[in-house]
Specification:
Blueprint: H1 2-7, H2 11-45, H3 58-70, H4 87-102, H5 107-128, E1 135-139, H6 144-157, H7 161-164, H8 166-171, E2 174-179, H9 186-194, E3 201-204, H10 218-230, E4 234-241, H11 253-263, E5 266-270, H12 284-287, E6 294-297, H13 299-303, E7 310-314, H14 319-325, H15 332-335, H16 339-371, E8 377-380, E9 390-394, H17 411-439, E10 446-450, E11 454-459, H18 461-468, H19 472-504, E12 509-512, E13 521-525, H20 539-554, E14 561-565, E15 572-576, H21 585-635, H22 642-651, E16 661-664, E17 669-672, H23 674-679, H24 719-741, H25 757-775, H26 784-796
Parallel strand pairs: 2-3, 2-4, 4-5, 5-6
Antiparallel strand pairs: 1-7, 6-7, 8-9, 9-11, 10-11, 12-13, 13-15, 14-15, 16-17
Pfam family, one: PDXDC1-like_cen
Keywords: Decarboxylase, Lyase, Pyridoxal phosphate
Organism: Neophocaena asiaeorientalis asiaeorientalis
């Protein structure tokens, strides 16, 4: 286009062509930039925010990680356990980063290095935990090792499994035996990983007559094995416990090993007590685990090592089967799983490993010895000398729970009483465990529900001490906290039945049996419109209970009150918390009933007030209209004409009284305003009588909080009160003597004379003496002062 422009001789046309070309170029460039920006916007709109742009710096990324870990500053801090990561923890974390770096080496160097790491770690673990000539499989999930062992057992017992697959299992179904005290969900996990149906699992019950109730019943297991063989099944594998997941009890592994050798069953052992194999002294039951076919260890929690894999040690001579089962791998990256543990074991050394495990066992023994001296605490311990797990619970034998109940011919009543006491203790133990976890977070306590014993508290330092840094001082603090909470537990448990009887005997209140509430009890107020058969929420009842909760909290008592839905319905209730002292239950229940009744009556008054006011206004309008008609008849029609009426009123004024109506909200009636205009004072009307309160008027001592029992028995009166009482009576006697001398000038004989201050003081002292004698009837003595005082009062009367 430039050439034609140059040939144009007219400079004007040439300039126009040049300007047009520049304008078109500017428009095209602008359109092109717009399209590119729109394309970038469309592209960036599909990309998440952190990935947009040219990336972020490391500080921003770490700040984001910190916010995700600990939460934002605006959020409330949560009381979570923070792992105590020491130098050994940093070594373990370093292993993960170092493993990523090692994986970049060339294949030959990587193969030699990973083989060395795997062989060293396997040898060290086998020597430390007394498992000679074993192989090791490192895995992240604790149950994964057992699943691989089950696969190895299937390949070992079914020679044609590789060729025929599950057709072999169909002809002879394998059976895996698990203890009833095993970890929940373990059997389902194994079936899902192996592709086996649930009938392949066999649940072995624990002892019911002899031995621990958390140990596998060996005799019953043998019977189950024989029955399965007769049915054409193949007993494949038995999972034994060296420290159950709940209470840390150990099965009779020696006897189980003999049984497995007899029937050709693979024996796998797992449990926290396997950590004691590293100590110098090991109980015989745990030491028998060294003869099993495989075992699973969790050195991470035992030694306080974060992100360290679990280890399954096993014995097998066929490398091909272990490779098929997945226990060994040719990939160097799989062997690098042992690197964090390889570094940590070298850092700790044998002395450091043994010291940590020994310290955890000593903490258990320390707590166990201290709890033996505490009343109302039951300890569930299998072996007092070497148990690394302590499980305890609060208990109290009430007067109704007597062994002689079995002889009474009313078993249903006895069983219901025992069941009710069991539920009450479970709720209290759940509350105790939560309180101890908050007071001593370094203890690492857990609350669990056992089938036979109920709710218990478990202290397992082998799994928590190294992580949380638990010390002996923490155990002493834990025992002190337990002792401080025992009076609250015993007092609450004793008052529960009394509270139930008081509520059931009070009209308008309904006792709600909530087995999960640890306090004194739960009560619900039944208002007039309450539908007892309905389980839905009640707005009117919720409003009454909300007001009742506010009134109860305003009393500033030692009890805690909260409102929530009923245990079996959506209706609102009042939950009464733990009692730290002797509570007057009758006063508490009566206060709840009277306060709720007053709230209901007040709410009804407010609801009816609108209707009453509306009717009153209508009645007032009718009466005022009637009064206007009477005024017209009285004054005449001429006075209503504007000009004529003014002239007539000037010549002959009308003396008409101003009439109006006032509505008395208190009395609910219409009254005339004539009294107001005549006397220039607004009358108060009829004063209604005070609403009688049904609450018991109890006089409290200074500083005494509501619902507290006071002066119980003759020993509850202090010596100071008795001395003050005698001094008051002597002062009254002295004043009465002075009044006898001036009886002639008494106000009774001279009306209009003001009462002297001595007489007022005497009356006040009489009232005080009467109150003291009413509160302390056991202090009243037949003294001459009392007789003279009585004669003096009678003479005045």
């Amino acid at each position: 286009m430039d050439a034609p422009l140059e040939k144009i001789a007219d400079p004007t046309l040439a300039e126009m062509g040049k300007n047009l070309k520049e304008a078109m170029k500017m428009l095209e460039d602008s359109q092109r930039r717009t399209e590119e920006e729109n394309g970038k916007k469309l592209l960036s709109g599909d990309i998440p925010g952190p990935l947009q742009g040219s990336g972020q710096d490391m500080v921003s990324i770490l700040q984001l990680v910190q916010n995700l870990m600990h939460g934002d500053e605006d959020e409330e801090p949560q009381s979570t356990r923070i792992q105590n990561i020491g130098e050994q923890g940093h070594i373990a974390l370093l292993g993960h980063s170092l493993g990523a770096y090692i994986s970049t080496l060339d294949k030959e160097k990587l193969r030699k290095l990973t083989t060395r790491i795997l062989s060293d770690t396997t040898l060290w673990l086998c020597r430390i935990f007394r498992y000679e000539n074993g192989c090791a499989y490192f895995h992240e999930e604790e149950r994964e090792g057992l699943a691989k062992i089950c696969r190895l057992a299937i390949h070992s017992r079914y020679e044609d499994f590789v060729v025929d697959g599950f057709n072999v299992l169909y002809n002879k179904t394998p059976v895996i035996y698990l203890s009833a005290a095993a970890r929940p969900g373990l059997g389902q996990y194994l079936c899902n990983q192996l592709g086996l149906p649930f009938p392949c699992l066999c649940r072995v019950p624990c002892n019911t007559m002899f031995g621990s109730q958390h140990q596998m019943d060996v005799a019953f297991l043998e019977k189950l094995i024989k029955d399965d063989i007769e049915r054409g099944k193949l007993p494949l594998l038995l999972v034994a416990n060296a420290g159950t997941a709940a209470v840390g009890h150990t099965d009779k592994i020696g006897r189980l090993k003999e049984l497995c050798e007899q029937y050709g069953i693979w024996l796998h052992v797992k449990g926290v007590n396997l950590a004691t194999l590293a100590l110098g002294y090991v109980s015989s039951s745990v030491l028998a685990a060294t003869k099993c076919d495989s075992m699973t260890l969790t050195p991470g929690p035992w030694l306080g090592l974060p992100a360290v894999p679990a280890v399954t040690l096993y014995k097998h001579d066929d490398p091909a089967l272990t490779l098929v089962a997945g226990l060994t791998s040719n990939k160097p990256t799989d062997k690098l799983r042992a690197l964090p543990l390889w570094l940590s074991l070298q850092y700790l050394g044998l002395d450091g490993i043994v010291e940590r495990i020994k310290h955890a066992c000593q903490l258990s023994q320390r707590l166990q010895e201290s709890l033996k001296k505490v009343n109302h605490v039951k300890i569930l311990v299998e072996d007092e000398l070497s148990s690394p797990v302590v499980v305890f619970r609060f208990f109290q034998e009430l007067p109704g729970s007597d062994p002689g109940l079995n002889a009474i011919p009313a078993p249903n009543t006895a069983l219901s009483a025992v069941s009710q006491e069991r539920h009450s203790c479970d709720a209290l133990n759940r509350w105790l465990g939560e309180q101890l976890k908050q007071l001593v977070p370094a203890s690492g306590l857990t609350v669990m529900d056992l089938e036979v014993e109920g709710t218990c508290v478990r202290f397992s330092p082998l799994t928590t001490a190294a992580v949380l840094g638990t010390r002996g001082e923490d155990v002493d603090q834990l025992v002190a906290c337990i002792q401080s909470q025992l009076p609250v537990l015993t007092c609450t448990l004793q008052l529960r039945e009394e509270f139930k009887q008081e509520v059931m005997g009070t009209a308008g209140l309904l006792y709600v049996d909530d087995p999960n509430w640890p306090g004194i009890g739960v009560v619900r107020y039944e208002h007039a419109n309450d539908d007892k058969s309905s389980l839905k929420s009640d707005p009117e009842g919720e409003k009454i209970h909300a007001g009742l909760l506010k009134k109860l909290n305003e009393l500033e008592s030692d009890l805690t009150f909260k409102m929530g839905p009923e245990y079996k319905s959506m209706k609102s209730c009042i939950y009464i918390g733990m009692a730290s002292d002797d509570i007057d239950v009758s006063e508490l229940v009566e206060t709840i009933a009277v306060t709720a009744r007053e709230i209901e009556e007040n709410s009804r008054l407010l609801e009816n007030m609108t209707e009453v006011v509306r009717k009153g206004i209508q009645e007032a309008q009718v009466q005022l209209q009637k009064a206007n008609e009477e005024r017209l008849l009285e004054e005449g029609v001429l006075r209503q004409i504007p000009v004529v009426g003014s002239v007539l009123n000037w010549f002959s004024p009308v003396q008409a009284s101003q009439k109006g109506r006032t509505f008395n909200l208190t009395a609910g009636s219409l009254e005339s305003t004539e009294h107001t205009y005549v006397y220039k004072v607004q009358g108060s009307g009829v004063t209604p009588p005070q609403t009688p309160s049904g609450a018991r008027t109890k006089q409290r001592l200074p500083g005494q909080k509501p619902f507290k029992r006071s002066l119980r028995g003759s020993d509850a009166v202090s010596e100071t009160s008795s001395v003050s009482h005698i001094e008051d009576l002597e002062k009254i006697e002295h004043l009465s003597g002075g009044q006898d001398a001036s009886e002639a000038n008494s106000p009774e004989r001279h009306p209009g004379v003001p009462t002297p201050p001595e007489a007022e003081q005497t009356g006040a002292l009489q009232d005080r003496a009467q109150r003291l004698e009413d509160d302390c009837p056991q202090m009243r003595k037949p003294r001459s002062t009392d007789l003279r005082f009585t004669q003096h009062v009678n003479s005045h009367l």
